[in-house]
Specification:
Order of helices and strands: EEEEEEEEEHEE
Helix content: under 10%
Largest sheet: 4 strands, mixed
Bound molecules: FE2/S2 (inorganic) cluster
Strand order of the largest sheet: 9-11-1-10
Number of helices: 1
Strand content: 35-45%
Shape: globular
């Protein structure tokens, strides 16, 4: 899988998202309480832009008159017909055994790691595993001060 630099951690605070184009795919990257998740921006129902949907939670009720609101900001509701999916796994709440949104590994990497990979790619572009596009970095001397969100996408360039 190729690694794609999405943005700095600081620019994607908890509760926010960013939808990016990687190759032919539209992918939404979400920060849920400081952890990052990436989902394909295509609803398994009819292909709606799921990653533009409302983030919510769900309510449970052990007995009439009592309820609890759980997992706030972890449930993604498709803007077209309202089907709901778990941001962390891509699974549908409607039919978890059969339906899910495609997910991709997302994590935080230090600027130092990315800089080291980038330097490696100068001499051997095939070995770094870090894809430059769509965010090509120019090569200037830099001081590394931030962490970055990176998503792995199979077969993309
Ligand atoms: S396209 Fe997403 S719920 Fe219908």
């Amino acid at each position: 899988m190729k690694r794609h630099l999405i943005c700095s951690v600081d620019s994607l605070p908890p509760g926010s998202r960013r939808v990016v184009k990687i190759g032919v795919r539209s992918i939404g990257v979400f920060n849920v309480d400081g952890r990052f998740y990436a989902l394909r921006n295509s609803c398994p129902h009819q292909g709606g832009p799921i990653c533009l949907g409302h983030l919510t939670g769900f309510a449970t009720s052990p007995t009439p008159g009592e309820f609890e609101y759980l997992r706030k900001g972890e449930i993604l509701r498709c803007p077209w017909h309202g089907w709901e999916f778990d941001v962390k796994t891509g699974q549908s709440w409607f039919d978890p055994a059969r339906l899910r949104v495609a997910t991709y590994p997302a994590r935080v990497e230090s600027g130092a790691t990315l800089a080291a990979d980038h330097c490696g790619s100068e001499s051997d572009p095939g070995m770094s595993g870090l894809c430059r596009e769509p965010y090509t970095l120019e090569t200037y001397p830099v001081a590394v001060e931030a962490d970055y969100v990176v998503v792995e996408v199979p077969g993309s360039s």
